Known about the structure:
By secondary structure, the protein is of the alpha/beta class. The chain has a single domain, classed as Glycosidases (TIM Barrel, Alpha-Beta Barrel). It is built from eight helices and 15 strands. The strands form four sheets. It has an eight-stranded parallel β-barrel with strand order 6-7-8-9-10-11-12-13, surrounded by four helices. β11 (about 205-210), α6 (about 220-235) and β12 (about 245) form a beta-alpha-beta unit.
Amino acid sequence: MPEVRLWNVGHPELYSFQVRTEEDDKTERIGFRRIETKDQRILINGTPVYLKGVNRHEEHPEWGFAFPPKLMHKELDIILELGCNSVRGSHYPQSSYWLDLLDEHGLVYWSEIPIWGAALPNETVSEPLFQQRALTMIEEMIGLHVHHPSVIFWSVHNEIDSRTQEAYVFTQALVGLVRSLDTSRLVTYATMHPLEDILLPLFDVIGINKYFGWYEGEVGGFKDMLEQFHERAERLGAGDRPVLMTEFGGAGLSGDVGWEPRLFSEDYQAYIVTGALAIFRNDPRIGGTFIWQFADIRGDLKSTSKSFRDRARGFNNKGLVNEYRKPKQSFREVRRIYRSWTE
């Protein structure tokens, strides 16, 4: 095809292809673009892209997980209003209709399989059946989303114990399978143990999940943590990898506003998110941010859980908008910040 128009962030170019037989036909829509990494940045068609994103769950109090198209259109409008150029699908492959919308509007998408577990035992990671199911999900995810130009990342897991040899062997198999199926995209994951993680060299891009100001310390703790992380990545031979902040933030109860930031208030949530974004933007080795999260979602509420106190109303309340997609103070602050970042 001569003079192919390239798909790019904010400038989508799409082509439709049709295959026909006597019994059936299929139409597929795709886009062409080149994905690379260089100087700790992600490049699309040779141009560095700083990712401004949110984490998104497909969950709503009225619709559950069965999202109607009209709700997806509403969410896309809100995400574009926020100033985002990317979305992280946490923590599972999401609707192909949703990816169609991202293709059409030139937004980057991070696709991952549901291998998640802050408390996932190493015994489970080592089980042959568990590993086979993970490999099967990799094949299914890539088969489902391979023709979507918005998909830039294949993510193999989120927040497993990435400090162990069992995790290393497991991850080698997952990454190897991804690269055998698709060499055109970047392989990634998200770690909650950035200062102890041994998996860094296996990936094209490294994601970090940390909640300073909420689960630990003060929001300013991000600065020291990142300095230590960059030094460690260099020692492990992964200092050239782009680093994305894939989860950070805090809970804010919609409508809880006051004179000063305090736990669970909209004010304090905005304080955490804006403080974190300032630190990340001033770090030249950070290539993008995905705020946790787009909208409040229902949680698995157990009084025996360590996170019971963190789930007021039975929700994970870290959304920039509430469960009905109404904006909080943090939404307005992030919109101001994301729209001011021109790169």
